[in-house]
Amino acid sequence: MLHFQNYINGHLVPPHSGKYLPDIEPATGQVFAQIPASDAADVALAVQAAEAALPAWRMLPTEERGRLLVRISELIERDLERLAEAESQDNGKPVGLARTVDIPRAASNFAFFGTAAQHFASETHFQQGVALNYTVRHPVGIVGCISPWNLPLYLFTWKIAPALAAGCCVVAKPSEITPYTAFLLSELCIEAGLPPGVLNIVHGTGLAAGQAIVEHPGIKAISFTGGTKTGQHIAGTAAPMFKKLSLELGGKNPNLVFADCDLTEAVATSLRSSFSNQGQICLCGSRIFIERSIYEPFKQAFLAGVTTLTVGDPQEAATKQGALVSEAHLEKVLSYIELAHQEGGKLLAGGQRIYLSGRCAGGYFLQPTVFEGLAPDCRVNQEEIFGPVVTLTAFDTEEQVLSWANSTEYGLAATIWTRDLNRAHRVAHALHSGIVWVNTWLHRDLRTPFGGVKNSGVGREGGLEALRFFTEPQNVCIKL
Ligand code: NAD
């Protein structure tokens, strides 16, 4: 049995309470590790360590901070295989996905922000003969980073790296459901020589450790990725304390397939955008709207593709679909499949839990599931399911599909499939969505603003947006 520890003031330490929580492997249903059940006392120690580290860290030249972050990136690359296996064991995702997406991206996050901060410049405003205004960007101070279970190391480092690059010290909490790679990261930070207290990783539940981070008066900004309800609760606590907030929340993303698209490409990518990571990516397109004239050919090709998505042991190379992250989450997704039947949907594929044999007999596996015939305003088409369940709906006009696409409370990401350049721009601009992909999906450039509108969140991550979030602008005005 593995025993993870908190990373506080440069050391791996047990929780103050001495209590631990079980960490379950989703593919087997078995406990494989114990994680610290941290609380406010551990967070207080972490903040104390961060306070002690902050004066030196913020004064360190940006190049030197960058060098340390690049070193961490190199160590992640060196340990790619070990980290990918850990991520797969902890989350249930196919190890191939962790090896090609999650872990390389975590390495890129450190390399990108370690170097991006060196190109971060502030503004001057010159009024001839009157005044010169210039802006200084100071690190916010100590910041809290709280991340979810679906892309554990990838999203954890997406917050930590820009915060550190900007000169902040960090108290971070990974999801208690997938803490393994965050623990391995703490070992790599020690090896890289990150000064004690600059990054502190506190494990534990949202209600105990997470809430303590949000409430601590010494923490000046919260960067959170997770569910919309949790985001609302965090905002309720942090806003009256005037903390800076970045909230990356849920989604119910539309995928618009126009008749003039490259059908082969649209089908292949829509299979990925529907079922990658068992549909547990906030950017997955779960509502697929298809122009009526190509509805049948799209549907037939899509369903043929679904049959090739082998569900199996995440450790095996042939596996395309691993386990859902937990039994509770599997039950939630199954309840939406039941609801889809009740709401009059026609099941085209999947719909059942899968019981594998051998090592994975107790795992949380589900068939990739496709429905049609559901109204765009029904609950299944409005609420975030966050699993391998998609709906197909035919549309007749651009106006109609836009109104359906924009009809949910969310606005994170959308995809458009068309060869008509004018339409691509027109539809993209009319979508209520923080991110729009045209003829692609999950194509990421780390310089671009990342985040959603409506209940998908507040603020943007990525590139300069993240560096701005973790700094406070100060204007200095000099009379000329
Ligand atoms: P969650 O909201 O349950 O938990 C996220 C994190 O918040 C965890 O670390 C949890 O321990 C912590 N937390 C819970 N309650 C807290 C509290 N009161 N105070 C402080 N921290 C608290 O979300 P989840 O189930 O882990 O992740 C799935 C959700 O995340 C989905 O809704 C998905 O859409 C969303 N998500 C969004 C993005 C994005 O970029 N917009 C990316 C990935 C996932």
UniProtKB/TrEMBL annotation:
InterPro entries: Ald_DH/histidinol_DH (IPR016161), Ald_DH_C (IPR016163), Ald_DH_CS_CYS (IPR016160), Ald_DH_CS_GLU (IPR029510), Ald_DH_N (IPR016162), Aldehyde_DH_dom (IPR015590)
SUPFAM superfamilies referenced in this protein's UniProt entry, alphabetically: ALDH-like
Active site (record annotation): E248
Family: Belongs to the aldehyde dehydrogenase family.
GO molecular function annotations of the record: aldehyde dehydrogenase [NAD(P)+] activity
Keywords: NAD, Oxidoreductase
Matching PANTHER family: 2-AMINOMUCONIC SEMIALDEHYDE DEHYDROGENASE (PTHR43720)
Lineage: Bacteria, Pseudomonadati, Bacteroidota, Cytophagia, Cytophagales
Residue span(s) of domain Aldehyde dehydrogenase: 16-476
Organism of provenance: Hymenobacter wooponensis
PROSITE patterns xref list: ALDEHYDE_DEHYDR_CYS, ALDEHYDE_DEHYDR_GLU
Name used for this protein in its record: Aldehyde dehydrogenase
Keyword match Oxidoreductase: yes
Organism domain of life: Bacteria
